[in-house]
């Protein structure tokens, strides 16, 4: 800890430990903000996304020691723009079909002091989802998400899936301003059911042409995007039979020739991360990565009504191992609490 802290303390966004410290301060009744531009304090420049925290001095002092964090004091209101963040209210979808990915999301968010509500199929269909800043759909196949267990397999209360009613509830939640985080396999379900203007380009590709069972793939990150605060510009993604996205472009020609059509509204899709142009394989083995992954979207922020669908083509928390990509989750959760 250094400097006078009449206004609070600055925390670098580059380390994941700043997230758990910020959440603990918020839970203890403190306040937190994120810089929206660079700010220089003494000889240190804090990048956009750095945290400003105010809270109990003893708690902050103890966390500086516990996590090895440098809390830099702010004597007065910094001459930079910043937005307040809150502890997000998060709903985590839990299918009655056993899903390891849901458990790993729960473990990681609990480790970093985020609070979660479990949302089963009936909760999605009947609860007031507007109470949640963000809802997370773990990696799970479309058929399993929609239909769940058959009535011949399980007791009736554990059968069925999201179905039409659950899907419509999620669409309404997102369209009305909610943030929906969708991991890996679940992206196929949301893309199809929501009619998003993106496609999974490896969905129907033969395993003889493209196959990556569990490897680290190089991606480049747009570090100017708020969803990538604290990230390095190059990162290893855990790719486990995962996905790659491409924005759908309007077609004006077909079997009958070319037709003069007015231009459709341009899809509002922000690229947060994309697979590298070359040398994609960082560890493991792969078939067809250069042909099918190069320059394709690995993470996209898709505008949907008044809200956002954040598509992860991979699992950023896979088995709690790829800590370099945790911030891609944390940033989305924090952004969901900010007022537009």
Textual characterization of the structure:
The protein has 340 residues and is an alpha+beta fold. It folds into 2 domains: 8-85; 90-250 and 266-335, 3-Layer(aba) Sandwich (Rossmann fold). It is built from 9 helices and 21 strands. The protein has helices at residues 17-27, 57-67, 100-111, 121-126, 142-147, 163-175, 186-194, 289-292, 327-335; strands at 8-11, 31-35, 39-41, 44-46, 51-54, 72-74, 82-85, 90-93, 116-119, 134-137, 179-183, 198-200, 215-221, 234-239, 245-247, 253-254, 257-258, 269-275, 281-283, 297-304, 307-312. The strands form 5 sheets. Strands 8, 9, 10, 11, 13, 14, 18, 19, 20 and 21 form a 10-stranded mixed sheet that branches. Strands 6-1-5-2-7 form a 5-stranded antiparallel sheet, with helices on one face. Strand 20 and strand 21 (307-312) form a beta hairpin. Helix 1 runs antiparallel to helix 2 (57-67). The chain is globular and about 70 Å long. 43% of the residues are buried. The mean pLDDT is 94.
Reading the helices and strands in chain order gives: EHEEEEHEEEHEHEHHEHEEEEEEEEHEEH
Low-confidence stretches: none
CATH architecture of the largest domain: 3-Layer(aba) Sandwich
Query: Any idea what the shape is?
Result: globular
**Approximately how much helix is present in the residues?**
10-25%
Overall average residue pLDDT: 94
Provide the CATH topology of the largest domain: Rossmann fold
Number of strands: 21
Summarize this entry quickly:
This protein has 340 residues and is α+β, with helices and mostly antiparallel strands. The protein has nine helices and 21 strands. The protein has two domains: 8-85; 90-250 and 266-335, 3-Layer(aba) Sandwich (Rossmann fold), CATH 3.40.50.880.
């Amino acid at each position: 800890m250094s400097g006078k802290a009449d206004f609070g303390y600055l925390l670098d966004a580059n380390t994941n430990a700043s997230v758990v410290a910020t959440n603990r301060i918020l839970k203890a009744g403190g306040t937190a903000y994120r810089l929206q531009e660079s700010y220089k304090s003494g000889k240190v420049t804090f990048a956009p996304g750095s945290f400003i925290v105010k809270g109990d001095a003893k708690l902050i002092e103890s966390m500086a020691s516990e996590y090895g964090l440098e809390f830099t004091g702010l004597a007065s209101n910094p001459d930079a723009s910043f937005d307040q963040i809150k502890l997000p209210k998060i709903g985590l979808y839990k299918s009655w079909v056993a899903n390891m990915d849901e458990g790993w999301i729960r473990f990681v968010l609990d480790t970093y002091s985020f609070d979660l509500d479990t949302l089963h199929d009936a909760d999605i269909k009947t609860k007031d989802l507007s109470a949640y800043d963000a809802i997370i759909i773990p990696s799970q196949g479309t058929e399993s998400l929609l239909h769940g267990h058959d009535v011949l397999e399980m007791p009736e209360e554990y059968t069925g899936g999201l179905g039409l009613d659950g899907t419509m509830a999620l669409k309404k939640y997102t369209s009305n301003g909610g943030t929906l985080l969708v991991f890996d396999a679940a992206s196929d379900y949301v893309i199809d059911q929501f009619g998003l203007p993106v496609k999974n380009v490896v969905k129907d590709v033969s395993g003889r042409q493209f196959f990556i069972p569990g490897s680290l793939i190089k991606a480049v990150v747009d570090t100017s995007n708020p969803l990538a605060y604290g990230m390095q510009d190059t990162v290893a993604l855990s790719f486990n039979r995962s996905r790659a996205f491409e924005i759908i472009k309007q077609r004006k020609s077909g079997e009958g020739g070319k037709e003069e059509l007015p231009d459709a509204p341009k899809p509002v899709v922000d690229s947060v991360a994309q697979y590298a142009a070359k040398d994609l394989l960082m560890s493991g083995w792969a078939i067809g990565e250069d042909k099918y992954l190069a320059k394709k979207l690995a993470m996209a922020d898709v505008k949907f009504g008044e809200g956002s669908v954040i598509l992860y083509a991979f699992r950023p928390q896979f088995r709690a191992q790829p800590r370099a990509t945790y911030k891609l989750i944390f940033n989305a959760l924090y952004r969901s609490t900010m007022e537009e």
